[in-house]
Amino acid sequence: MSLGTAARFARRELRGGLRGFRIFLACLALGVAAIAGVGSVRSAIQAGLTDQGAILLGGDAQAEFTYRFASDEERAWLESVSTALSEITDFRSMAVVDGPDGPERGLTQVKSVDDAYPLLGEMRLDPPMPLAQALDGDTQPGAVMAPVLADRLGLSPGDSFRLGTQSFTLSAIIETEPDDAGDGFGLGPRTLVRTSDLASSGLLAPGSLYESEYRLLVPDGTDMDALRAEAEARFQDTGIRWRDARNGAPGIARFVDRLASFLVLVGLSGLAVGGIGVSAAVRAYLARKTGVIATLRTLGASRRVIFLTYFLQIGALGLLGIAIGLVLGAVIPLLFAPIIAASLPIPVMFTLYPGPLAEAAVYGVLTALLFTLWPLARTEEVRAAALFRDALDSARALPARRYVVATAALLALLVGVAMVFSGDPRITLWTAGGILGALVILAVAATGIRALAHRATPAMRGRPVWRWALGAIGGPRETAASVVLSLGLGLSVLAAIGQIDGNLRNAIQRDLPDVAPSYFFVDIQPNQIDGYLERLESDPAVGRVDTAPMLRGVITRINGQNAQEVAGDHWVVRGDRGITYAAQPDSRTTVTAGEWWPEDYDGPPQISFAAEEAEEIGLNLGDEITFNVLGRDITATITSFRDVDFSTAGIGFVMTLNPTALQGAPHTFISTVYAEPEAEAQILRDLADAYPNITAIRVRDAIDRVAELLEGIGAAIRWGAAATLLTGFLVLIGAAAAGEGARTYEAAVLKTLGASRARILQSFALRSALLGAAAGVVALGAGILGGWAVSHYIMETDFTVVWSSAIGIIAGGVLATLLAGIGFAWRPLAARPAQVLRARE
């Protein structure tokens, strides 16, 4: 009965239109739209990867080996289960061009192929020609190259260059490589040649660092799960790595999922900001309904009827706001689909995806309930007589216990849903904790600002503009709490992201080059290491040279169990890892637990494992690790843990074994060289001329590639934070609009007492600027705290305050409140005092 009565009352209230609820709708719609939009783009990318997975992979399935080609038995089985097979190798090398001032060199990611490549897709070249023709060459083997590398080396079709000791003719420039996205991140641009033409190059010698990939086309209807299981069972001890077209570009898929999950969490921050606006709008609306509620209570309406009346009304408007957000989140990606698709190196398929829309709707409903339940519940605690005076201020600070419990349950449910949807509970909990912590800090700060303004008002005698501004901030009806909470939370998110982004950039672009080596040399053959060291150790410009033998292997088992079942998706077991051996630890190695083997140890294989990675996986001393090197299984016992610092870009191995454990295995050496910048070019020339097979990676170039990637990530995150800030600005506008009546009355009184319009405007502007500065300072503190926590605990980097970002945050707070305050000051200033004061009588 009460529900039906409340529904009729709510329907009549809704006839009054959306007055007072525009900000409510905008805040809710913007937050939902941001989450729906990010989810729709993620679904479009995932659909593109799935639909074009075979092309991205280069076949229906792929078997991959490290340091070797498939054995006769492995190749025979691959041919037996496929209708077509293509063999590819992938490795880094140096492309060398003879110039007028000596050889010019550029790091390149070489892909060597057979005549069957590509099984799927089309290689587009400039000038147009079939790939087979381009690789035939004329008097020497042909090659094709990425445009950026050709430009860097000054090459045009018809020119010659070298890979190792083999000369090639550049036949064409690569316009489109069908499987480039599936190849993952590379430090150098692509060069493509035939594998048979590398026979005399010295680049594929035993122990050289290369990967061989076998792409397969399989008969229609093949059970891919069964095929994978058979491959892994048949060759489980040979180090084979298998993937199929359902996961054609796993690195990109992981990256997209994690970035999208983080952006959804940023969108949740926007919803939290919008929730403050929703709550403020509900409070303001109920305050205007004092007379209506009082009349209903006088006529015998129960608390339940009043609560349900406004719950249903605001619920209907909330659903409208969520619907608007879902429409925007679905339509905007479709409208910008051509631009998004053009900016991505992978296929995308834009259409309406119900999954992300449902996810955004759940977030919207939970947020609306969370932020409207409290102000609605407080109406039950107000007596009829008190309602005629003030609908909410006369109520208790806390509503009935059941509503407090319901609010806590909604908050827990929202966090739980976010953990499930994001797929990363740790980051979700950090984000939720950061938002809640920021809200607590901002709420305490808002109370402190009002108290400070109230105490400072008497000290401003003789300075009326300051006195009026501080008196208004410290007064009972000023919207300081709404301004500081809404704008402050948006600025806090932006400040935290700015600090994290700035510190990460500093670590990569400023701090890392100070501790990183000049060059990273790989594929140094054992018979070359003495001459290599002799050249460097005799050079006074070289401060330090580190060398280590290196093999690569795949961890297959931990304590006899499948490694990925034990360690999950940890990066150590996801692919092949570098392995080294050492009789004794060097002076920079710190053993944190266990003991190193004796220098002349010749017993069963022992291993020293990186301490941090071991803790993440859950390894203990005495555990057994089985890894595959060149098709041979080696099982070693963990006898020690040691600190490994990968942040310096130096040599670092997760696994170090005793020398006899790898005795007889072909391997090469890697080396880092720390030298004066002016000597780097000569070092590279001398070593490249003496040892053409050695690949030199200039660390600063690698840093620049990483920084370029981070720029794109940072831009996406900053756009997400900007949406949060926009929501905060909308809440700020709502607060300014809600206080327009009070400012009109205030201006009328001041005019009556002789104040000029200019002084009143100065007071309004000063009030807004002070609140904005306060919100900016508090947000900066919260943002710095959040940035430090993420940098220290998640990214494990040093943290320093990025003052350029900090000053921008404070300036943004002042500017936003000034714009909103002045924008809603003109009507109060223009109102005639007599009309305003008579109306108040």
From TrEMBL:
It is a multi-pass membrane protein. Signal peptide: none annotated. It holds the Pfam family FtsX. Keywords: Cell membrane, Membrane, Transmembrane, Transmembrane helix. This is Putative ABC transport system permease protein. It comes from Salipiger profundus. Residues 266-378, 723-828 form the ABC3 transporter permease C-terminal domain. It comes from the Bacteria. The chain crosses the membrane at residues 262-286, 307-340, 360-377, 403-421, 427-453, 769-790, 802-826. The keyword Signal does not apply.
